[in-house]
Each structure stands twice: as C-alpha cells, then as structure tokens.
Amino acid sequence: MARSLESPRHEALRAFLVERRQKAGLRQIDLAKRLRRPQSYVTYVETGQKIVDVIELLEWADALGFDPCDTLKRLSKLQRPK
Q1: Digits of tens for pLDDT over the chain (82 positions)?
Q2: Residue 38 near residue 32, CB atoms below 8 Å
Q3: What domains appear along the chain, each with residue ranges and CATH number?
C-alpha cells in the first residue's frame, strides 16, 4: 500500500488547495494569517509534506470560501491506492 503522502487522493487535495488559494488571489503568507498559522504550515501542506486532517480542511474551506463536503465527494471518487 502506498504511503498517504504519495496517494492520488493526497496529491489531488494538495493541488486543489493550491488552486483555491491562487484563485482567491492570496499569497501563502496571507492564507497563513487567515488560518492563524505560520507560513511554513501552508508551505508544508501545499508541497505535500503534511497531510491535512478533517478539521484543517474545514479551516481551509472557511479561509478560502469553498464547500468541504463537495471537496470530499470529489476526492472519494478517486481510486484508492492498492
């Protein structure tokens, strides 16, 4: 079984979060301030070095204005690693 950090679902979530931040016109430091986290946290998530848990996904959704339920539905349709 592939590690979670290397899974298609993790990669898709990472790419989605980067895209949403960019569409919002925010720099990593701007998002970090909204999340009340250091900028390095945003970097670790966006570069795939950190897995996002459900609570963190909700925080990112609030900060960037997307529906976390829709995001999870899309991710659940991706093939699980074997």
Answers
A1: 345 667 889 999 999 999 999 999 999 999 999 999 999 999 999 999 999 999 999 999 999 999 999 999 999 998 765 5
A2: yes
A3: 4-74 (1.10.260.40)
Instruction: With beta carbons less than 8 A apart as the criterion, state whether 8 and 82 touch.
Output: no
pTM of the model: 0.88
**Residues 71/5, Cβ–Cβ less than 8 Å:** no
Q: For residue 35, what are the CA distances in angstroms to 1, 12, 49, 59, 82?
A: 32, 21, 18, 7, 34
With tokens 């609030």, the residue in question is: 62
| Token couple for 68 | 């976390």
